Structures are given as structure tokens and as C-alpha cells.
Amino acid sequence: MPLNIVVVGAGIAGLSAAVSLRQAGHTVTVFEKSKFAVETGAALLLVSNGTRVLSRLGFSFERARGQHFTAWETLDGRTLANIGSLDLTDAEKRYGAPLMCVHRVDLHKELLRLASAEDTNARKVQLHLNSAVIDARPEKGEIELADGSVHKADLIVAADGLHSVLKRVALGSLASISASTGISAFRFLIETRSLMNDPQLVEFLSRKCKGPTILADTQEVESERHIVWYDCQGGDVQNLVGMLPFGGQGSNQAIEDAGALGYLLEGVETAAEIPKRLELFETVRRKRASRVQILSKKRVGKEGDVQHELEKHADPPGSGSLRNFLAVREAQADILCSSPKIVRRTQRA
Length: 349
Hints:
The protein is α/β, with parallel strands linked by helices. It has helices at about 10-25, 50-55, 90-95, 105-115, 165-170, 200-205, 250-265, 275-295, 305-310, 320-325, 335, and strands at about 5-10, 25-30, 45, 65-70, 70-75, 80-85, 100-105, 125-130, 135, 140-145, 150, 155-160, 185-190, 215, 225-230, 235-245. The strands form 4 sheets. It has a 6-stranded mixed sheet, with no helix packed on it. It has a 4-stranded parallel sheet with strand order 8-2-1-12, covered by helices on one side. The protein has a 3-stranded antiparallel sheet with strand order 3-7-4.
């Protein structure tokens, strides 16, 4: 008997979870507060820990117009001199899945396609738009919508974003309040064809690596400001974002969560089994996600600054030496590209 699962939120995290849980054999209903009338956003990097899970779910990078990237370079933002580069041509062989640049809207559309596709039992994810969830009663397995209707489930998955309603319900006084960090990013997209009339830009594109290029501010070393530049949508669009150093793992970690949920709940037929499976989920995901989050605060080469924090989340305990964590973190590659075995699920026939 399949579980009745409700997912709150139909962003990348929510739809990935919905598809994974549906493919695990369960009945899944998604409630999303927006109408999806105008989806916006820019591009993002999906590294192997994310693309591996998506591939197992049947995600088509061709439909999503994803761009393989095979290198990563850092240039002096003032002189364009090469500071360092990383050859990732063998990334798929090393990590079991490709590295991709994908526009967020295209990623979302392909996840919607997967959610809407019927499985072998003529089941598909039920998606309700313009359906804001305003409250939940976890002990009863209920959510309440803005229209006053109440919906019951064996499991409620919270994927309702930054201003989450369910985070407050689940964590109570422990729920953190969103606050300004004073840090911002400036992001924009440019059609590639619009650059073709500028000889200097044409020349730069001809020697730019096939992947993210970091234009570093070499004069403001303390702030570590930089611009990241890569293309998407089959090369038709250039994506640029000015920012401070971050790991860029938000979407990838959400996708990992989705893969782990589907794997751990596969074969579960009664609600009584759910608590033990969620305990396993906590074991599999919490420490790994914490390490990735901590490392995201530091640029490559400065991991020692957060060694003490990393050791708190060592898995297994006591294995927290910096060498163990970062032996192959070439430009974040292994920490960001290797996913736990729990999400390495074989594709169903």
C-alpha cells in the first residue's frame, strides 16, 4: 500500500522530492502558493552529486538545454591573466555523472515534466497551484490552506523556501528568523549573439574555458569579491554573477535530499515505518550537508579556517582531520561532486 505524501512547495527541492517519492511507489500531492505564471531566474551549476541523482530520476539534460562544463578557471579580473585552472574533462568518469550549467527555468520545466509523467501504475504527481499552505499540525498529519481546506497525509515534506511556514511549525522556538546578512549578489544574463559585434568580447569568448570562469578582484583580497561567468541554454545565453565566495550547493543539496528520501522510503507500506526511515535520513544527510554548508563559506585554500567547525560534523566521529576532509578537494571538486551511496539508486526498468 503506497504512502500518501504531501510536499509543500514546488520549487527545485519540492519537485525533486515529489518525483523521487513518486518513483519510490508512493502517492504524492504538491501544494504550491504561486501560479507559475512567470517563472524567472538565472543559471546555476549542477555538479556530479546533483546530476547523478537527477539522472537516476530520468531527468533529460538535453531537454533542459544543459551545457557540459569540462574546466574551471580563475582569471585576474583586471588583466585577465590566468591565475589558475582545473581540467575537469574526466569528471564524469571520476564522479559518475557530468558537470552541467543549466538555466533555473529549464531545470524547473524538466522537473515539472517528470512530475507530470505517469508511471507504470498510471500514477503521476498531483500538483495544486495557487494553494498557499498557512499552517500544519504534524501530530495529526494535516496541512491547512489559505482557503480553509485541510488535507491529511502520512508524511509532509517541507520545501516551502526561504520564508517557510512549515519550518516554524516543525521547529517552534528553534526556527531561525530570516535576517539580512549585508551580503548580496548582482546577477544578469546576456544573449550570446549580442556580444558578437564586439571584437574584444569575441576574442575573449574564443579562449574562455568551457565552464565557469572566475574573474577575481585581485586588489581587494580580503573581501574576495569576484564575478563568475558561464553559459547556459545550449550556449545561447551568458550568465554572470558578481558575488563573494560561496559553494553554490543549494540546488545540489536539495536534489541530494530528494534522492535520499526516495531511496529510504522505497518499499515502505505503512505510516508506522516512517519514523525509523526518517531517523536514517537524518543520519545520512545532516552531517554531510553541514560539512558542505561550512565549506561553502570559504574559498579553496582557506579550509583551515573552518577545520574546527568541520570536525564537529565528522562522519564517522573522530575522522575530522583537514586532510581526511579535503585530500581531493581540487577547487571543491570532490566535496561538491561525490554524493553518498544512499542516493546511488539504480534506474528501474
